[in-house]
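As agreed, record passed on underneath.
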Amino acid sequence: MDGAPYLRKMDLNIYEGYQQLLEALENMFKITIGKYSEREGYKGSEYAPTYEDKDGDWMLVGDVPWEMFIPSCKRLRIMKGSEARGLTCGL
């Protein structure tokens, strides 16, 4: 979460998909993330979960299929929604 380093490893394999991961993050940080849409990202939410892939690019959580996300995710970061604008698949 921005401003609050939380240096802890997470085993993404215990989650069955994005919904379970997002619920776990919401419970861990006591925040509301909201629903993801391909067109609008996490619009209307104060926070947007992002991840750094193995190429060093930051993308929105949910931009790629879950099966591709698990091996490519190196680091998770919960950004303020306004700062995450412009992060989309392929950037």
